[in-house]
Amino acid sequence: MGLKNKLFLGTFVHSKALDELEYLHNAAVCVDMSGTIVAVEVECDELRARETVLPRLGWEVAEVEVVEAKEGQFFFPGFIDTHLHASQYPNIGIFGKSTLLDWLNTYTFPLEASLSDPVKARQVYTRVIRKTLSHGTTCAAYYATIDVPSTNLLTDLCLSHGQRALVGRVCMDQLSPDYYRDASADASLAATRASIAHILRADPTMSLVKPIITPRFAPACSLPLMRQLGALARETSLPIQTHISENKSEIALVKDLFPPSATGAADDSYASVYDAAGLLTDKTVLAHAVHLTEAEADLVSARRAKVSHCPCSNSAITSGAARVRWLLDKGITCGLGTDMSGGYSPSVLETARQAALVSRHVVMGANGLAPGEEREKLSVEEVLFLATRGGAEVVGLEGRVGGFEVGMEWDAQLVGLGMIGEGGEVEGEEDEGGDVDVFGWESWPDRVAKWLYNGDDRNTKKVWVKGRLVHQRK
Ligand code: GUN
Ligand code: FE
After folding, report:
1. Which tens digits make up the pLDDT trace of 119-153?
2. Among 78, 336, 378, 438, which one is least packed by beta carbons within 10 Å?
3. 312 and 354 Cβ atoms separated by less than 8 Å
4. Which atom of ligand 1 approaches the CA of 100 most closely?
5. In which pathway does it act (predicted)?
6. Does 277 reside within a domain?
7. Please, which residues have CB less than 5 A from ligand 2, an ion?
């Protein structure tokens, strides 16, 4: 909870629409003690804010905390990472030449299993929260592990560090190693209920952390388990997260494991398996969706399920190039996921950059795709929309976070670029702007493009969630 009313002054940049960023200069945003935006004023300097806006709000001027974006700085909504594995953080960058199924067995399951050690879990989960916050991730949809106590710990750490999160205890009762598998569908369901109960005790109004039902992916879940989790989602109205159509061998495995004769679905597609189990809802976050067929994408769209696009991961473990424009054209809501540690980076900014680049591979016809059209390309504005407003919709927080509007919560980052003086030196600290040098003559859209393509955590100066300062760069 932010303890004071706050007045933010300067330039604010946020998405208005998929292809439109809005730039508010000399603006003032007032955030009350609960972390809610109560006023957005343009053409408003500190004096005017003190004389007109704060009295209108009935705020005691002397008790308001003022945060000003300096020259070269701007406020931007916090990033929303719609898909990442908190438990895999120690493995980022470690994937060799593996592809999904061998990557899981070689790198991932042993690490996840080892986090049942509470000391190790605390070390890893503390670090992943700190690290993602330092990259401006104010909200994360986390997969933990199958272990309930350490999943509970992840929840507690999100709350104590102030990161907004969806926390999912991973369900997997088949086709996984003996040392890392739920004993049965019933045991998996019971453990899921226990982890949900913990979250609801720790944050009864789900003001910051929310449970998310997490069948790992179809190959690792029996049909009875998937059906029970689908029923649990209906009973609780909770969101669901899983993986879909990431890799061709995985898709073949799903066809083998779940014939329509078993699922009762009309066909043997991956999406139909989830649909038959009741897992394709308007609160379902589907990671990857690289190889969906036309009919599957139509089904996902009809169910209003969401997609987490994970370009860093899809390139790293050679899964393919998701056709985001095609998904968007079908009316499917998309956001971005780092998918650590399939993805090699904790940064949503890096993921946005890769989303822009991978969309160009689609145009070039890479990865067996027919060459696409120029309009497959995602612009700077579009990938930053996916990283904020799109992500908010994917995780069910639209209207609450992702932009700067009255009534929304203040989940934001202060971004600083390196302003270059007349002598060619950076004004301020030497690494002030990281790799982003701004000479002052660039337009604001060009500055933001420079940030997207060359920025990193050195540019993330301060981060707030629900009005609380949760990261500050030293
Ligand atoms: N499919 C099933 N589990 C995983 C996972 O941990 N990461 C990714 N990228 N895909 C998966
Ligand atoms: Fe994943």
Report:
1. 999 999 999 999 999 999 999 999 999 999 999 99
2. 438
3. yes
4. 10
5. Purine metabolism; guanine degradation; xanthine from guanine: step 1/1
6. yes
7. 339
